[in-house]
Amino acid sequence: MTRFTPGRRQILAGAAALPFLGAAARAQGSQRYSSLNMFIPAAPGGGWDGLGRAIEQVARQAGLVGSMQFENVGGAGGAVGLPRFVAQRRGRPDALMVAGAVMVGATLTNKSPVGIRDVTPIARLTEETLAVVVPANSEIRDIKGLMDALKANPGTVAVGGGSAGGIDHILLGLMIKSLGRNAREASYVAFAGGGPAQAAILGGQVKAGISGYSEFAEQIKAGRMRVLATSGEQRIDPQAPTLKESGIDIVLGNWRGLFAPPGISADARANHIRFATELNALPAWKQLLETRGWENAFLAGEGFDEFLKRDIEATTAVLKEIGLA
Amino acid sequence: MKQPIAPAGTPGADLAVGLFVMLLGALTLYAACAIPDSPLYAQVGAKAVPYLVGVILVLLGGGLSAVALRGGWSRDNEEAMAAPPTNWRALALLGAGLLVQVALIGWLGFVIAATIQYVLVCAAFGSRRPVRDLAIGIAVTLGAYLGFSRLLGVNIGAGVLEGLL
Amino acid sequence: MDAISGLAMGFGNALTPINLGWALLGCFLGTAIGVLPGLGPALTIALLLPVTFQVEATGAFILFCGVFYGAMYGGSTTSILLNTPGESGSIITALEGAKMARHGRAGPALVTAAIGSFVAGTVGTLGISFVGPLVVEVALKLGPAEYFSLMLLCFVTVSAVLGGSALRGLTSLGFGLMLGLVGIDLQTGQPRLTFGIPELLDGVNVVLVAVALFAVGETLHLAWRHVEGNQEVRPVGRLWMSAGDWRRSIGPWLRGSFLGFPFGVLPAGGTEMPTMLSYYAERKLVKPEHAGEFGTTGAIEGVAGPEAANNAAAAGVLVPMLTLGLPTSATAAIMLSAFQSYGIQPGPLLFTQQPVLVWTLIASLYIANVMLVVLNLPLVGLWARILKIPTPQLYAGILVFATIGTYGISNSVTDLVLLYGIGIIAMFMRRFDFPTAPVVIGMILGPMAEQALRQALTISQGDWSTFVTRPISLGILLVAVLALSGPRLWGAWRARAAR
């Protein structure tokens, strides 16, 4: 009863001299939602936000969605936004949240009352390889140099990244652990968002930084940061070896996907999964993944449930092992 | 003209303020104790600053209480001393306006809750034309609602009335 | 390409009828949302993002820049007239602005805010065009240690708003620090002072607290002491600034502008800190004959300076975005994602790879700035008429707008309860003569200072000397010591010289 029909919205928006607002909805394919609330448990500009807005771009052009409203509630690897999403969108069939690996770790580490188990998994969409970078003028030349410094004394190597206990932090912990040292010795500096973290790396405030490769890509291209290694199975940057190639047996990906609030009906869930599947099948989506340099990691429904269960188990084990959970 | 002194203008009221600030400090200290220990960042952890703020508030509250026991500071505050007596009717109407908003906005929606609030607040400040206030209230809140929802796509609390639109 | 020829090309592109139309629409929308509490430029641009699917890049960015600058202009209006700041950068403007309005000087306050915004916008845009890349390189030299020292410097400014009693002023500050603690801790992820309420996990919104303290508290206090039939008469007074107002405003405009811009460029700077510092500076620098107006009838310097600082900082925020591709504020982050939806990857190479777009965008900032001052000055008379609304309807309207700003964006009843609860506390603070401004200052600076402190100590491995061994940090600390003790030493020296 609170939803407007798309046609009506369009007319009113048009009458208000903002004709562009409703125009995209005109291409009526098989519309899944007349209006969709996209919740981003991170500040605008980060990876989850980028994915959410990319979905908007493609889904609206294809007419899968009439209109989309965004809500950004950032902080603590999504642990700030998640409870709000759960509390405010419970049972609503027109709400989705972008989240991923970072949130799994963050909610476990924080022992927050609300976890990723409390939302309804819909689909995994992308996976991003992490990159270990240093400022361009750093004396650390390669991944071996960094590992040597970490082995000597992890405390002297300040590493910047996202929130405490997040995937960036976990990768650092695993690297230190692989040297036979305790991950607690790490000198990890949590920054609120990509902007301040990148600024700290560029300015040499921290010795190294860990985050998604795409966040650093432009800085690497411009020669302001040097990439030491990436965390995937395969090279993403021909210049940079993977951790595995460098003899460090770690493969870690920052996957991102869609979640629905708890308490939705089976029909609503099926509708969400159809939406994700149809989105993934669009040529425009493939094109977009390519331009942005995101790896397609589509997995929906039962498969995603299984993956998530295993991921939570694995992450819990890892966090315990490195003394964070 | 000498105004009757408000009952709140006694050292007792000042003491209550001092005690309230100490209570806030104690609450902060209590909450700080409840923060789980983290194995990370032993130098300045998650608890240090809350403890500090709690202690500061307790000390300041103690200081205020001490001043209150020596006669308080309100007697030097001309504005408070010369203030007209408490207007219980206005406060009650305004308080009702706030309560109505909190209680009804999720249930009846923004337009109805805010209109009732508008009429009650007008009445609190001595408006004697509730019907006109009601009309203005509906116009203002409906205008705000439509402006937000139609132009910007922001939902500011849809309810019964908004659903009909 | 050098800045002059870049600008020439930019103006050539921006001065087409269609692009001017986008700029005008943006300025209009921006002013409108700036006037409404709670709706900031970041949210508005996010809501306008679908434009990027329909319009070519230049037009869209001109629109966004108009919204961004317009919101900064509009934000001061409600601060001055209704004591209801629309965004965190306008909170300090409300201190003197609302007092001026209450004493029949709403017109000059609005005019000095508008012209100050123009001056600061121009200074800021000149800064973006000519020294942006330079300043940002300096800004990158500042790490958490320097930020912590900067916060300490800003804490000095609290002394300007403590009011009659240090004990009560510091209590207000302590209350603000306490409110700032609420939420999940960034460095460890532990929830603090949330008392098991999930809505508190993301902390308490500072604009909500400012509106509660200034607007809701004032309304409640008025009702408490309301005398039936006793209508408050609010004089509107003259609308334009007098020659004396001009003389008193020019210095604060320029100081605020030059203070604000570099703070905006800082990756973790923002618009709040320079407004506080500007307010402190103006209060200390004011001519003795006007000093009594601060905190009583409202001093025009206290509006001109912070408002200019706010706008110059807002312009500065665009520098790290354009030169390095760093999203250092919510608005910049949204604009970056708009770049990406055009397939433009913003980064250090943006200026060389997209010179046409970047310089057109910068040129449109100049244009938006001129448009806004032309749009806003004639509106002053109209805005000031808001004060003619009878007391009951005016205060009822303020409460309803405070509610829209709070509930509209978050849809959270918890936020409403907080708004009214803190409003009730503010009513008692008013009665017992506690200043409200330190609460806001504590709330803004407290969390920033704590995080910077802990980041710095993690980097230095727990070595506290990092704050004095890093030269820039030491310099800032010395300025803070000077600001704290300077006026006293100066006074003592003058007293001795007079003897």
How would you describe this structure to a colleague?
Chain B: The chain crosses the membrane at residues 15-36, 48-69, 89-122, 134-161. Chain B: Residues 16-155 form the DUF1468 domain. The complex is a heterotrimer of chains A (325), B (165) and C (499). Chain A has 325 residues and is of the alpha/beta class. Chain A folds into 2 domains: 6-127 and 254-321, D-Maltodextrin-Binding Protein, domain 2 (3-Layer(aba) Sandwich); 129-230, Periplasmic binding protein-like II (D-Maltodextrin-Binding Protein, domain 2). Chain A has helices at 6-15, 20-23, 47-61, 81-89, 101-109, 143-152, 167-178, 194-202, 213-221, 266-281, 283-292, 302-321, and strands spanning 33-40, 65-72, 95-100, 120-135, 158-161, 187-190, 208-212, 225-230, 253-260, 295-300. In chain A, helix 3 links the parallel strand 1 (33-40) and strand 2. Chain B is 70% helix and 0% strand. In chain B, helix 1 runs antiparallel to helix 2 (48-69) and helix 5 runs antiparallel to helix 6. With 499 residues, chain C is mainly alpha-helical. Chain C has one domain (3-491). Chain C contains 22 helices and 2 strands. Chain C has a two-stranded antiparallel sheet.
Question: Which characteristics define this entry?
Answer:
heterotrimer; A: 325 residues; alpha/beta; D-Maltodextrin-Binding Protein, domain 2; 2 domains; ten-stranded mixed beta sheet; 12 helices; 10 strands; 22% strand; disordered N terminus; C: 499 residues; mainly alpha; two-stranded antiparallel sheet; 2 strands; globular; Bug_dom1 (chain A); BUG (chain A); Tripartite tricarboxylate transporter substrate binding protein (chain A)
